[in-house]
Specification:
With 124 residues, the protein is mainly α. It is 69% helix and 0% strand. The two termini are 15 Å apart.
Length: 124
């Protein structure tokens, strides 16, 4: 992935607590302007990889905000994950970055969830 792009996203999607995810997603809006400026030199694969990385970073942000295992389980169940799977995922000892790439997290928090519910602008 392009180093400048990943550093820009890291600056706009902090993993510290206390921020609303809507505010963080709105902070990513200038990225579409960045993309339009560099569109000529960027490949489609790089843009898809950057989209995937942004979604994963947003999942890490939410996972860290949920903090306690019981909160994680409750929120996962609310997003359509079965009770047993929510218990396994909510009580895992893996770190947030590893959990953000699990199949269950992709099911619970798909990219369309961020687009539809929170207005994330996908890079194209």
């Amino acid at each position: 992935m392009h180093v400048m792009a990943s550093e820009g996203v890291k600056g706009r999607v902090p993993v510290k607590l206390g921020l609303l995810h809507n505010v963080v997603i709105q902070g990513l809006a200038p990225f579409s302007g960045w993309l339009n400026y560099f569109r000529v030199g960027l490949s489609k694969k790089l843009i898809q990889e950057l989209n995937r990385w942004i979604i994963r970073r947003l999942r890490v942000f939410l996972w860290k905000q949920w903090k306690l295992p019981r909160t994680k389980v409750r929120n996962l169940k609310g997003l359509g994950i079965s009770h047993n799977d929510a218990l396994k995922l909510g009580n895992t000892r893996k770190g947030p970055w590893a959990v953000s790439d699990y199949m269950l997290m992709n099911f619970a928090l798909p990219a369309q969830w961020f687009v539809k519910n929170h207005g994330l602008i996908r890079l194209r």
